């Protein structure tokens, strides 16, 4: 039998491999044929676009775009502009020391309105000597003949080089590539970006990347010829490169250093005016302006990352290898691996294409291989199914062999109950060999423990042989083997019926469930006990407490529930690690289980550092208090944890039956409430439950529920408090402050609900809403002519939240607020948690361009050595150092020291809580930069702040010490 199976398997493997190779070759030929006629190219380009847009490069610092945008059109008038305007721009770029300049503007006709302008522009170009102008290929309107449109002769002569701006769209109308050389009759013009490089380095065009044209029709003067075809590795979406408004550059509002030794491209970005091309990285179908398209080409050439398609032969070879590899794996591995292997093959093909594109800048179209690999799975499934049916027929012929190989033990007896045969498993469990067992009574070899009179076996034989029915032994049956070993067994018997339907024998099937029984008992234990401390869990606690209540009712006595929660356990986890915390919990459980601990009560662990104890047979309340004090005393001695001395205390809440609850749920809940009151009162204490605790907990729960719905009910408001520059008396910013106008309770103090939001995690959602609202309001004020800086406080939980930086980027993008107008205030105490991580996050925020301030400075404990490393812009003096007219000499000294220290570190200082002229005069005297407080205005809604901004200038407050601005 074994030889037959082996030969059958060998034949199957050989046949499978031969069939695999034949089908693979046929499938490769089919898919490659589809690829040649272009049916898969659309899907290839979709994969290419996704691969390209999934990663972006940092914009090149040496490429700058001067954009003819909407702002420039509004300020300089309708297009086209006088060429004297362009001449002025060229001169400014010349003066700034630009490395080379490309004007992506068509000058195909003379300026008839101002002929002198052409001469002026030509002179500017000639003086500069490193300018490039574009060449276009166009069709005439009369006969459709293709012509080259060059700049007018005077400008073409003045330009250092000319470069073509020809772009070929793919069949799906997406611009992905460019020809580095093109021209009418011959590819004599470099593309605009390459021409720009050749101005600085004439040898830049000698060795070019790209796919060469197969033929160049040199004799055809009317054909547009192209050569050196490359795919463009776009650095990022539209707007990725540094852009300066044409108008701003012309007015001198852009520093000259911006263009020094930089590649400068001048072109149209205004919508509907210039050429715009759909690209693989065009976000939300936003086309890319032609000038930025050329900037991407320039960036690719400068970095040497131009993408080249694999040659046709290389692509065909790689496709064939991938498909054949997939089929060989299907032929070698068993059917259960087919689906994972198909997925692996598809993934491998995608990864290879993606890696070639990203790392080696080579494009391999993967769709031909992916389609072949995808089709291979159903083909192999069908073939395997056919082979399985053939194997099933062979398997039916081996039923008898299977009986002897099953894991169940089988005994066959005759009509009198004498053994006829055993299978190998039965021999193993019974300790009898078949030759010795044959002819023996069933009771001689099949002996059950705890059944000396063989009643179970008599019932088994009677039911099967005499009543001609099936019979099953009890699940609690234990088999005793010939050598005395016991097994837990599951046994059943069925009669063997002759042709007349009478029992001519019976078959007893039994299996060893000893291990299953042990695992079941173990799983039951694990399901009802804490895995760390081995203490009973909530299910057993509720059951024990339910029975304790029933016994107390019958006996007329009381019982108590103690909720024991370890104090400051989180510090152990944070300081020594979770492994040490687990060790401490086990040590606490061990002490509580000793007679000195909870020997008189039942102890349970429900989670983390929370334990419960059930006390019974209580006659007086003080017995529970004495027991709780005993627990505190047991926990008082030092714990030795991994070489560290740990002192731990506990807060204990007690609820009593029947005084504090009639059922287990009420007692557990009230004990927990009492425990939390013990923590609020200072920890390491015992607290009995009282009714007012429930009321307070209910009020807190109600407030939390109301806070969860406050956003959707639009009950939250953002008020704004102005900030004034003491140097010029102008309001230069506002701080956004959260307010909650409850529908029933009215205005709720932030002191009451902000800590609750922090504790429940709602501060993350609310904080994001405040940031979004404040940025939208700042943008609104900017459009009204008030470019105010918006200060928004980031809570510690918000700051440490993963994705916080991405959230800020998204809000700035959605609201359109420039980052420099956003001031993020971060509490000083936050930096005590993880200094290095906080510093890294602050650097990322500074890269975005936002303003950073440390709030409440002077109230925390941050190290001055760390302060030097914080990339912040401003310190905010806490109002506690400014209030009460700065009567305290200590407060005065701190305020002066903070101002002096900040100025020495080139940081600005803002003081909050300024309420009167005395405080203002002190801060002016000591060179404080900015102030905020009731002296200017109370926090007020946006419309009231708008009225303040349009009214009298706050600088009057500096001149008249008796004046005071206030918005109630």
What does this structure look like?
The protein is of the alpha/beta class and 968 residues long. The chain has 34 helices and 37 strands. Strands 1, 2, 3, 4, 5, 6, 7, 8, 9 and 10 form a ten-stranded mixed β-sheet that branches. An eight-stranded mixed beta barrel has the order 29-30-32-33-34-35-36-37, surrounded by four helices. β27, α23 (664-680) and β28 form a beta-alpha-beta unit. α4 packs parallel to α5 (115-128), α7 packs across α9 and α10 (312-332) runs antiparallel to α11 (338-359).
What is the average per-residue confidence, as pLDDT, rounded to a whole number? Answer: 83
Q: How would you describe the shape? A: flat
Number of E strands: 37
The CATH homologous superfamily of the largest domain is called: EAL domain
Rg value: 43 Å
Per CATH, the architecture of the largest domain is Alpha-Beta Barrel
In the CATH hierarchy, what is the class of the largest domain?
Alpha Beta
The major β-sheet equals: 10 strands, mixed
Class from helix and strand fractions? alpha/beta
Contiguous low-pLDDT stretches (5 residues minimum) are 1-13, 952-968
Number of domains: 5
**How much β-strand is present in the residues?**
15-25%
Number of helices: 34
């Amino acid at each position: 039998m074994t030889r037959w199976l082996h030969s059958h398997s060998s034949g199957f493997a050989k046949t499978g491999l031969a069939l695999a190779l034949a089908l693979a070759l046929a499938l490769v030929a089919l898919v490659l044929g589809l690829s040649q006629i272009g049916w898969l190219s659309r899907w290839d380009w979709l994969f290419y676009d996704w691969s390209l847009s999934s990663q972006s490069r940092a914009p090149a610092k040496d490429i700058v775009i001067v954009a003819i945008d909407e702002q420039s059109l509004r300020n300089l008038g309708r297009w086209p502009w006088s060429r004297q305007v362009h001449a002025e721009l060229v001169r400014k770029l010349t003066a700034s020391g630009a490395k080379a300049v490309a004007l992506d503007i068509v000058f195909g006709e003379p300026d008839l309105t101002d002929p002198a302008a052409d001469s002026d522009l030509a002179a500017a170009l000639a003086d500069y000597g490193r300018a490039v102008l574009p060449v276009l290929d166009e069709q005439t309107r009369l006969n459709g003949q293709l012509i080259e449109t060059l700049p007018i002769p005077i400008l073409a002569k003045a330009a250092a080089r000319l470069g073509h701006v020809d772009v070929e769209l793919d069949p799906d109308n997406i611009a992905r590539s460019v020809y580095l050389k093109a021209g009418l009759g011959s590819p004599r013009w470099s593309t605009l970006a390459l021409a720009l490089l050749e101005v600085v380095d004439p040898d830049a065009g000698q060795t070019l990347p790209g796919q060469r044209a197969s033929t160049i029709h040199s004799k055809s003067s009317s054909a547009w010829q192209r050569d050196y075809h490359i795919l463009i590795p776009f650095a990022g979406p539209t707007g990725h490169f540094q852009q300066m408004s044409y108008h701003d550059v012309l007015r001198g509002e852009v520093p000259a250093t911006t263009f020094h030794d930089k590649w400068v491209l001048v072109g149209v970005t205004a919508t509907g005016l210039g050429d715009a091309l759909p690209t693989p990285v065009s976000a939300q179908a936003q086309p890319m302006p032609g000038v930025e398209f050329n900037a991407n080409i320039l960036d690719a050439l400068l970095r040497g990352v131009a993408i080249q398609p694999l040659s046709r032969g290389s692509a065909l070879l790689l496709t064939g290898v991938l498909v054949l590899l997939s089929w060989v794996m299907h032929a070698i591995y068993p059917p259960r691996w087919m689906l994972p292997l198909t997925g692996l093959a598809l993934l491998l093909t995608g990864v290879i294409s993606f890696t070639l594109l990203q790392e080696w800048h080579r494009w391999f179209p993967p769709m031909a291989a992916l389609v072949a690999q995808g089709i291979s799975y159903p083909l192999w499934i069908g073939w395997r199914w056919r082979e399985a049916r053939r194997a099933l027929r062979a398997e039916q012929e081996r039923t008898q062999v299977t009986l002897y190989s099953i894991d169940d033990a089988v005994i066959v007896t005759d009509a009198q109950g004498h053994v006829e045969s055993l299978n190998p498993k039965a021999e193993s469990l019974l300790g009898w060999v078949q030759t010795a067992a044959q002819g023996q009574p069933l009771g001689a070899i099949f002996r059950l423990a705890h059944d000396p009179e063989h009643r179970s076996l008599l019932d088994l034989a009677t039911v099967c042989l005499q009543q001609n029915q099936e019979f099953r032994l009890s699940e609690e049956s234990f088999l005793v083997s010939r050598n005395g070993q016991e097994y837990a067994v599951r046994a059943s018997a069925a009669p063997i019926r002759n042709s007349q339907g009478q029992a001519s024998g019976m078959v007893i099937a039994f299996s060893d469930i000893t291990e299953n029984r042990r695992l079941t008992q173990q799983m039951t234990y694990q399901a009802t006990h804490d895995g760390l401390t081995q203490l009973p869990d909530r299910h057993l606690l509720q059951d024990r407490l339910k029975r304790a209540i029933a016994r107390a009712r019958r006996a007329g006595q009381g019982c108590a529930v103690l909720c024991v929660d370890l104090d400051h356990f989180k510090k152990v986890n944070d300081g020594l690690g979770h492994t040490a915390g687990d060790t401490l919990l086990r040590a606490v459980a061990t002490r509580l289980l000793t007679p000195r601990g909870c020997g008189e009560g039942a102890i349970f662990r429900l989670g983390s550092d929370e334990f419960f104890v059930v006390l019974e047979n209580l006659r007086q309340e003080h017995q529970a208090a004495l027991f709780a004090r005993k627990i505190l005393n047991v926990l008082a001695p030092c714990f030795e944890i991994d070489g560290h001395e740990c002192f731990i205390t506990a807060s204990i809440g007690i609820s009593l039956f029947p005084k504090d609850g009639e059922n287990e749920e009420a007692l557990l809940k009230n004990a927990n409430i009492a425990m939390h009151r013990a923590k609020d009162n200072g920890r390491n204490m015992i607290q009995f439950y009282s009714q007012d605790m429930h009321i307070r907990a209910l009020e807190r729960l109600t407030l939390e529920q109301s806070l969860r719905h406050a956003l959707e009910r639009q009950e939250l408001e953002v008020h704004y408090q102005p900030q004034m520059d003491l140097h010029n008396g102008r309001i230069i910013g506002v701080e956004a402050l959260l307010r909650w106008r409850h529908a029933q309770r009215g205005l709720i103090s932030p002191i009451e609900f902000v800590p609750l939001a922090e504790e429940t995690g709602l501060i993350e959602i609310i904080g994001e809403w405040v940031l979004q609202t404040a940025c939208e309001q700042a943008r609104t004020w900017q459009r009204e002519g008030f470019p105010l800086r918006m200060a928004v406080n980031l809570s510690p939980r918000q700051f440490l939240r993963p994705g916080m930086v991405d959230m800020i980027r998204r809000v700035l993008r959605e609201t359109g607020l420039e980052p420099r107008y956003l001031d993020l205030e971060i509490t000083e105490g936050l930096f005590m948690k993880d200094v290095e991580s906080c510093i890294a996050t602050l650097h990322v925020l500074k890269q975005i361009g936002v303003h950073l301030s440390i709030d409440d400075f002077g109230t925390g404990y941050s190290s001055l050595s760390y302060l030097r490393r914080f990339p912040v812009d401003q310190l905010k003096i806490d109002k506690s150092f400014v209030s009460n007219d700065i009567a305290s000499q200590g407060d005065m000294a701190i305020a002066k020291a903070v101002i002096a220290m900040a100025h020495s570190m080139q940081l600005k200082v803002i003081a909050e809580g300024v309420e009167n002229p005395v405080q203002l005069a002190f801060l002016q005297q000591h060179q404080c930069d900015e102030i905020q407080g009731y002296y200017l205005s109370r926090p007020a809604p946006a419309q009231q702040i708008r009225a303040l901004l349009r009214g009298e200038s706050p600088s009057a407050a500096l001149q008249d010490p008796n004046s005071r601005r206030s918005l109630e």
